[in-house]
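#struct-pred
JK: can someone run the complex with zinc ion? inputs below
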Amino acid sequence: MKDSTQHKFHPVGRCIYCGATGVNLTNEHIIAEGLGGVALLPKATCDTCKDITSKIETVCLRGPLGNIRLGAEVKRKKKNKPRQLINYKIFVQNPDGSEREVDLSKLSKDELPTYFYYPLPVNPPAILTGLPVDEQIEMRSRHFHKDTQARLLALGHKGYIEAAYDERPYLSMLGKIALGFVVAQYGLDAFIPLVQDLALGREEEPLRYIGRCYEGEEGYSDAMHEYMFELIDEHFIAVRLRLFGTYGLPTYKIVVGIFKNPDLFDDQG
Ligand SMILES: [Zn+2]
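RT: done, structure tokens with the ligand placed:
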């Protein structure tokens, strides 16, 4: 897998999501800065699409990945802003047996119990298997800190976390990242994109293009975020994408498009 820290790419000159030209185009962080992403695709998104993809990322950063980001204090731009978490609550029991919600904004980063919450499709992308798109997806969680359980206990008796997330924004974000890496490597003209709707949160069947990668690395990786390209059946350009491999999160396979000229494929690229 390639470490995601390469960050110099050619300007695209077109919106990679809607194809717009002749409009204001801005630089696109392939992986959100809030997740520690550094790869930058110059002149790659129009204002309308940037607005949509940014909102999707914000949901992920304040929701499924919000508490880990706060726990790690990954690049918080406005350090004095109060923590905003979506659907993440901690409850503990008082000595008299009643329950109270913990005020998370008062906890330091060394006190906050932190988890990753992520959706994991059961199957590879349906477009590769030829099977109908099913809805089989698991919501999983994983400790961010080794002492997460101890942190939770420190907050009070019988502490528990309530977290509920919709899987779609996370899947859209993965589609957006995969599209960005393929464009960065091969250019927008090298393939017919299939995941623009996914990246914009409009795809009705995300699991047609995104699924679990069973050839993915096991255990823990050295790079925080990593990826590699795959040409499947001399036809599909796909990305194996692993975010937070350092914490043992899984690898996804995302079919980004139809590759026009297989001879140009270079997995070392
Ligand atoms: Zn656009």
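RT: quick notes.
Residues 78-163 form one domain.
Residues 240 and 253 are 5 Å apart (CA to CA).
JK: thanks, will look after standup
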